[in-house]
Amino acid sequence: MDKISKPSVSPNPVILQSEGLLKYILETSVYPREEETLKELRNATTNHPLGFMGTAPDAGQLMVLFLKLLNAKKTIEVGVFTGYSLLLTALNIPHDGKITAVDPDRKAYELGIPFIKKAGLLHKIDYIESPALPVLDKLLEDPANEGTFDFAFVDADKNNYWNYHERLIKLIKIGGIVAYDNTLWGGTVALPEIAVLESKREWRRSTLAFNKAISNDSRLEIAHVSIGDGLTICRRVS
Ligand SMILES: C[S@@+](CC[C@H](N)C(=O)[O-])C[C@H]1O[C@@H](n2cnc3c(N)ncnc32)[C@H](O)[C@@H]1O
Ligand SMILES: O=c1cc(-c2ccc(O)cc2)oc2c(O)c(O)ccc12
User: Fold this and answer.
1) Domains of the chain, first to last
2) Which ranges does the record mark as transmembrane (predicted)?
3) Which of 5, 12, 84, 227 would give a disulfide with 52, using CB separation of 3.0 to 4.6 Å?
């Protein structure tokens, strides 16, 4: 049956219409260029019961391009899990770059730490075991933090994306980028609610509202890209 008309979504959705096409992209352009420790971390994450949550490697490759284009040095990550996107960021910022990485699930991060250590990149990471909102609020208590971050990546609780956005837009410098993962939420954003698994409905509604609000946010230039589970790339312009 065609993916679009399926009445429910799998936990690891293929937004592209053809799984074969995604396989082709991954095998031709992504996996051959994926750094070795990153590949090892991704493979180790498949043993985690929630391993499907790791950032899609093709979306990761696009993130690398932005990190490099921005010459990003100071970044924030909301939603670390085992650390695929975190290690990817650490690999692509300079030696004295810093990532503030926030996640309440330290246990998942511990799976990734040996790979980050093997890559010699733990010194770039300030891991904060916490929900992200109070951490962002604390950063904003010091006006010196405003407009200082080059890049932020959000891949966490989808119902809080707008709350993160309101804070991150102040922390990111003009010209900097905030990227949000899962903004197509398994393709459910284009389905009637009745066709969506009940467990996915609340975050589908949050994602729909978030996508609309981002599209109306005049402080940004955006691209809503159908890669991975949907990636919205926002450049702060004012
Ligand atoms: C999809 S996973 C992140 C995947 C990660 N980017 C990667 O590449 O592996 C979502 C993560 O968000 C975290 N999370 C959930 N609620 C959060 C919150 N309020 N603040 C920060 N992180 C949160 C979860 O603990 C989980 O590890
Ligand atoms: O199915 C999911 C679930 C999540 C998820 C669950 C609980 C949290 O506290 C945060 C996120 O994240 C996902 C994800 O990032 C993804 O790419 C695919 C599926 C899921």
Assistant:
1) 19-236 (3.40.50.150)
2) none
3) 12
